[in-house]
Each structure stands twice: as C-alpha cells, then as structure tokens.
Amino acid sequence: MRKLRMRVGASGRAGLAAIVAGLVLCLVAATPAGAASRPDPKPVPATAQRTLVGSASGDEVGAAACRVWAFGYAGWAKCDSHQLTCDFNSNGTYDESWVIADNRTIWHTWPGAGRWHEMPNNGRADDTYDCYTSNGNRVIEVWVNNSGRWWSWRDGGTWRGWYRA
C-alpha cells in the first residue's frame, strides 16, 4: 500500500491560516457580549420589587455599603446589589425584604421585626435573585458569583439551609 503525501507550500499555508482566522472571527462575532458574565436575572413575579441599592444622587458611588430602608428600619447593603421586597400573600402588601451586606452576609426584615436580621444557616451571596412561594412555604433565591443561584425556604417559621438551585 502506498502512502500519499501532500506538500503544502507557502501559499497553501497562507490560505489555511486565512480559513482558520475567518472561523475564529465568525465564532467571536456569534458570541453575545458578556456571555461569560452573570446572566440577566429571570423576571421577578409581579408581587416582588427588586431595586438597585445606592443613592439616586450618586453620593455613595464607589462605597462598599449603601443605606437601605424597609418597613421603617434602616440598614446597610452592598452598593450595586439589589434590595428584594416580596408580597408572598399576593394581597398588595409587602411581607419581607432582603439585602446582601458588603461582607456578603444575607439580611432580611419584615413588618414588626424591630430591625434587620441576618438570615440563619451562614448563607453568603453577591446579590438577591428572586422570591416566591412553593407548597405554601416562602422561598428566597440569591446569586453567588461563580456558583449560580442558591435558595432557602421557610417551613413553619424556620428558615432552612441553603441549596443550589
């Protein structure tokens, strides 16, 4: 059996290089901008409000923590994260609000709480994500960079651990 050998001259190598460069350019052009970064959050239910943390005047731009308010209680949250306030009963009244502190701890408050409380079970996050009810239980989802969505649920008045969504 005879082996075939193909010799590629300088013009052939240049042509091959042009084809490879063209394919790379097509792949780069077809990749959406920011595809490797955090995906856009899914739509929040109509019974939730997700608000960017930071002052409208821009006084806190560049600060690690910005002032937040919910149900008459002042607190601090990581600037450029989102405050998530939820109406779990769908009765037009917000029931609970969450923020992420600049040290990545997760805090929440509700009417009558007296202050902001750190969520139990040592959760850490980079932003809030969503809230909803499931089988009559309250569920909160947070975003963790390089790890994705995590959730916790409240069963009988007790917040359970954190689980990967």
TrEMBL record:
It comes from the Bacteria. Keywords: Signal. The keyword Signal applies. Residues 1-35 form the signal peptide. This is Peptidase inhibitor family I36. It comes from Micromonospora citrea. The lineage of its organism: Bacteria, Bacillati, Actinomycetota, Actinomycetes, Micromonosporales.
